[in-house]
Amino acid sequence: MGEQPIFTTRAHVFQIDPTTKKNWVPASKQAVTVSYFYDSTRNSYRIISVDGSKVIINSTITPNMTFTKTSQKFGQWADSRANTVFGLGFASEQQLTKFADKFQEVKEAAKLARDKSQEKMETSSNHSQESGRETPSSNQVSSMNGTDDEKISHTPDTMALKSENDRLKTAIEQSNSNAKKCETELQALRESNARLLDALQEANSSVENWKTKAAACQEENNALKNKIVELELQCKEVNQEKERNAQLTLRVQQLETELQDKEQELENLRKQAEIIPQLMAECESITAKLQAAEQSSTEARGKVTALQSEVEDSQQKHTHMKTELKKFMDVLEGKIDELHEVRQGLSKLGIDN
Hints:
By secondary structure, the protein is of the alpha+beta class. It has helices spanning 93-145, 148-153, 155-273, 276-299, 302-352, and strands spanning 3-16, 24-26, 32-39, 44-51, 54-60, 68-69, 74-79, 84-89.
């Protein structure tokens, strides 16, 4: 009948890292089929799992093996022939329990098969030893009797030995072919392990690159946040500046109103200043009259007394007019200075804006 599957489940397959002997290396990218196989011709049990066209588990179960549950959904066993440790990750604890129970059952069956094989080998050894001890006497009898019937009676034992020898040769050939197959599968597993290590290293380098990029993005994000804070502060300063500009605009309007009032006052002062030439002309005429009166005083001292009061009045009037004119000029200069200060203030405000 050959090998037949007796139990099948699905699990994620792992193998122990051959370098560290601690870390698990995934042998399958996803959950794959894991089966128990029974070889009726060899009376042996194997656990086999194939991912696509690649054999990732080919473990012959021996009585010395032990399946260990390391967690609720993970179990492992060591295979000394493959020089590795296999690990299986199941979807549920129930699947793990079924697989472990089947492993124990198969292990017991393998132990019984080994015991029976040893009994057969011992029986065969004892039988061969007894036949070896009896053969000389039979040959001696045959040689003594020399009959053909006695010689023919020993041919079945010879045929059994030949068939047993042929069977052993066939078993040895099958064992050699299986050994070659196992070596091929082991080489394929080693190559797969190397590829997986390369992929893991590449994944680790990718993770480091992503970590570097993430750190750079985080720094850029922090820089952008700081920039946003600075822009918000600048916006606050701009708003404050707008408020100051609004206040300055209002102040400028007030100053313009005051300037218009000052210009109106200055215009009035200019109109009053137009009278000054007339006053000066009158003053000069009075001075001329005074001089004429002084000249005529020598000629008419007699009239001095009469005109003295008039001259005194004229002098007082002239003095009063000079005083008034000086006050007017002082007021005019003050107004002109105020107007000049107002214009300077307006030009300064224009420069600030």
